[in-house]
Amino acid sequence: MMGALRHLRSLDHRGELMEAVLQFHCEGRIYAALQQFKEGLTSLGVLDEVTSHPQDFEKVFLQDTTTLKASDIVGVFQARCRSLPSSNRRRLEARTIVFWKDWLLEVEGGLAGPITLEQVLIFGTGLRRIPAMGFSVQPELAFLHPEDGHAKFPQANTCALVLHLPVGQTYSIFKTNMELGIGSAQQFGLA
Questions:
Q1: Which residues contact 49 (CB under 8 A, 6 or more apart)?
Q2: Which of 23-27, 73-77, 119-123 is predicted least confidently?
Q3: Which tens digit of pLDDT belongs to each residue from 68-101?
Q4: Is 73 exposed, middle or buried (0-12, 13-18, 19+ CB in 10 A)?
Q5: Is 157 exposed, middle or buried (0-12, 13-18, 19+ CB in 10 A)?
Q6: Measuring CA to CA, how many Å separate 168 from each of 88, 99, 154?
């Protein structure tokens, strides 16, 4: 079945048999699927680009093993300030953005309890990793003001990719509420 019918005359020849078995399991069993995949890439004109510039397509075809950084999360979520410029609400939103960035640095450094950057990303987007091709919709930061209703803990809309941050708090309260809000939502995305 493997095309490796070989008679072992001595233990020295077992390497040849093992090589044939490995070749079959690694390449032979998936040969038809690989050919179909290559034909699909060829019909779109992508195969030539992949073979001539493999380093450019590495993130698309291989799992990203880099660790998530605070700067990655900051780059993903763009702040959406809806308050009027120079208003007190806008000032509170700007201060909350600073709190957000400082808190992410603490999470990255392991100073935010059991919360990880992956959990923050899952809470805000529903994804464990930033997609290689980016998000189809730019994730946003929005703000929860106390006068607008319940604004103590962060809230997320993973369909619209909007993360709502509470404003009007001191940094220590902000940090505690972020850790409680995200830590209490650990079951999201787990089946």
A1: 56, 57
A2: 23-27
A3: 999 999 999 999 877 888 899 999 999 999 999 9
A4: buried
A5: middle
A6: 10, 11, 13
Distance CA 66, CA 31 (A): 30
**Joined tokens for residue 77:** 């979520």
Q: Are 77 and 140 in contact (CB under 8 A)?
A: yes
CA-CA-CA-CA torsion for 103, 105, 110, 113, nearest 10 degrees? 0
**Would you state the pLDDT for residue 189?**
45
- The answer to whether the predicted template modeling score (pTM) of the entire model surpasses 0.90 is no
How far does Cα 93 stand from its chain's mean position? 26
Residues 6+ apart with CB under 8 A from 103: 112, 171, 174, 175, 178
